[in-house]
Design brief:
The protein is 31% helix and 7% strand. With 180 residues, it is mainly alpha-helical.
Length: 180
């Protein structure tokens, strides 16, 4: 979808409101049912709204667009724990076509390998061979495959169009563009 100049202006005007709404959704640590509100250590921790409201907003999950934050330099995560580990950014996309009536899934390796080593997923959760992973939504919802992270530390599984993003009638065209 291409946005017109007017829509970009409208988006720019709405962005502060989006950030404000997101900030209101981050529960204070004293009210998150995780941290002990009576502990003196709670005052040492940074509140989620203070930290996350400075990052590019998103419309779901923890309300942060982490890939955009990384690409814009808003965050600079450690790429490895051991100096000998080589970071291998992959720019290829994988298209998962066995999605029934849903649009095809486009898996962007780049967005994942910008901050994850291949060993985080391969060969434990994903076998590096075409057709070797019997991925389906039930398994993902049960915490397998993509569900290891999505729904936990990555955007939630309720954002269907984030993954199911390729209309079937445009698949070959999009695959050709991805190869360039």
């Amino acid at each position: 979808m291409k946005l017109s100049k007017g829509k970009w202006i409208l988006f720019g005007l709405l962005l502060p409101a989006i950030v404000a709404v997101a900030a209101s959704k981050w529960r204070p640590l004293s009210d998150d049912n995780i941290h002990d509100p009576d502990s003196p250590a709670i005052g040492v921790l940074q509140e989620p709204a203070e930290a996350l409201s400075k990052l590019p907003p998103d419309t779901s999950g923890n309300m942060v667009n982490w890939v955009k934050a990384l690409e814009e330099g808003a965050i600079n995560p450690r790429t490895n724990l051991w100096p000998e580990t080589k970071v291998r950014i992959r720019n290829n996309d994988i298209f998962l076509e066995n999605t029934g009536e849903m649009p095809v899934v486009r898996f962007p390796h780049r967005a994942h390998t910008l901050w994850l080593d291949c060993k985080n997923c391969h060969e434990k959760y994903f076998i590096s061979k075409k057709g070797a992973n019997p991925i389906n939504m039930l398994k993902i919802l049960q915490g397998n495959y993509c569900g290891r992270c999505h729904g936990a530390v990555a955007f939630p599984l309720t954002e269907c169009n984030r993954c199911h993003s390729v209309p079937r009638h445009k698949l070959e065209e999009i695959k050709a563009q991805a190869r360039k």
